[in-house]
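Aim 2 progress update. The chain analyzed this quarter is reproduced below.
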Amino acid sequence: MNLIEFSYRDSNAISRMTKMRDAGIGNLASGKRSDIQSKDSGAYSMVTRINSLAKTDQHISKNLQNAVSFAQSQDSALESASKIIDRMTQLAGLATNSIISDSDRENYNKEFLSLSKQLNDLSTETFNGKKLFGSGTAGLDFITGATGLDYANKILSPATDPDTGSIGGGDVTGGANLNDAAAVPDVSGSPASNYTPITSGADSAAKSTLFNSMGTQWLKSSEDLIASQYGWTPDTSDGWNLIINETDANGSVAQVGSLIYSDGTADVVEMQMDLPDFSPPYVEADRIIAHEMVHVLHAQNTYYGDPTGDGSSSAKWLKEGLAEFIHGGDSRVYSELGENPTDQQIGDLINAIGTGNENWASSDQYAAAYLAVRFLHSEIKAAGHSDGIKHMTQWMKSQFDAGAGAADSGLNKYLSSFLSDRGYANNDEFLKVFKGLEDLEVIGDNSGSDLSLSSVSMTSIPDLNSYNLTTASKSQNTQDYLDTLTETLALERAKVGANSSRLKSQINMLDRKGLAETAAISRIQSIDVADETTKVSTLNLKINFNLTAFTQAKNISRNLMGILFN
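Predicted C-alpha cells:
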C-alpha cells in the first residue's frame, strides 16, 4: 500500500470537504448563501441591484422626513400669522368706531404697526438656512441682473437715468432714452376713439383747456403709441364718455369704467379724470392719459373681462402692468426702493403683486405689476419672439377678432402655447416664478421623479400708507383687506396640509417597498435549511470516514513493519 500517495490524495480531499462543511455551517449560522457569487452569478447580480435600490429608497425616505419637518415649520409660521391677523382685525374693528378720539385710534395704530412688522418678519423665516416661503430668485435676478432691468444702472433717479422704462425707450430696446416728455411721442390730430366729452356751460377755463388738449393731441398720441407697441386700435362702435371732474372726485388721478359680460367681452363706459391732478406744464399728463387709454383699448381688443381665460381671475396685475409699461414705471419703482435696495426689499416689492387679482390701490402694487410685465416681456423675447410683449397682445387681438373665446385667447393659453419651454403653463405658474415661489421640488423615488409640492407663501401688509388705522375710513379699508388675508392664509395652510399628506403617503409607500425589497433579497440569498443540514452531515461523515480510514491504514502499516523486523 502506497501510504504516501494515499496521504496526499486524501489530505487534499479532506481539506476540500472541510472547507465545504465550514461554508455550510456558516450558511446555517447566517441563513444566507455565502457562495452565491460563485455558484449563481445571475442571482448575485439581482441581489446587488435590489440592495442598491433599497439603500437609495432609504436615503430618499430620510429626505422626505426632512421635507415633512419643513412643512410643519411652514404651518407653524402660518399659524402664528393667523393669530397676528386675528388681532389686527380686532384692532381695525375697534378703530372703525367714529366716536373714539384720535389718541385712542393712534394707540390702536401703534399696536397695528408693530403687529405688521411681526407679520412681515415671518416671511423671512428659514429652516436649516432655506427660506420657508419662496426660495426662487427669477424675479429678483431679472430686476438686479445686467441682462434684465439692471436696477443699479438703469432704474435710478431721473437725474442719473432719464429713461422712464417705457416699452419704446432705451432701457427696454437699447435705443434712445425716452424721458418724461418723450415717453409718449407728441402727435397732433383728432383721435379715432368714439368718445363724448361731458361738458356744461359752467366749465372752467382749465377744464376746457384740458378737453381741448386731449381732443387735439393727447388721445391721438396715446392711440398711435399703443397701436405701435401693442397692436391695439380703437373700436369706433364702442362709444364712451370723457368726464373731467372739477374737484378730486374719485380718489384717483384717472380711471376707466367698463361693463363686463359673461363671455369676457367688455364695453367701455367712461374715462374719468380729476382736474386738480392736471395742471401746467402738464409734464406727465400725456403719460397718465396713455395709461388710461391702454385700459380702453385693452377692453376693446381682447377678452378684457377674462384676461387669463380661466373664467375667474381678474389678472389686475396684467392690466395695470401693461398700462404702466406703455409709458414706463422706473420712477415709481425707484420711489419704492430707493438708491441701494436690499434683496429683501426688492422681494417685498415683488410680493406686493399678491395673487394678481386684488384691487389695485397702492403705489407698490403698480410698481410690482410694471416689473412683472417687464419680466414677461423679457421671457417672451427669450422664447424667441423678438417683439416681446407685443407678440402676446397682438395674438390676443387676433384671437379676439376671430371670436375664439376667452379660454383660447387669454394669458393661460398664450403661456402654454408659446412659453411652455420656459416652464410656464398658466398665469399662476408665471407669478410663482416671478415671486420666487416655484413649486418645492422633492425627489420622491429612485427614478428621480419630482413630487412637485405646491408652493406656499406668507401674507403681509404691502402698503402701510394705504392700510393703517389712522382714520375710521382707512380702518374700514384695512379691515376689509385683512379679511382677504385671512382667506389667503386658510388657502396656504390647506396647501401645507396637502403637501404633508403627499409626503407622508410617499414615505409609507417607500417603507412598504423597502419591506418588499428586503423580502426579495432574503428569498434569493436564503438557504434551504434541510438541504444545507444534509450536506453538512454528509460532509462530516465523509471527513470522518477518510480520517478513520487513513488512521487505520497508518496503524496497519506500523504493525506490519513491526512483524517484518521483529
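The two ends are 20 Å apart (CA to CA). The chain has a mean pLDDT of 85. These observations will guide the mutagenesis experiments scheduled for the next reporting period.
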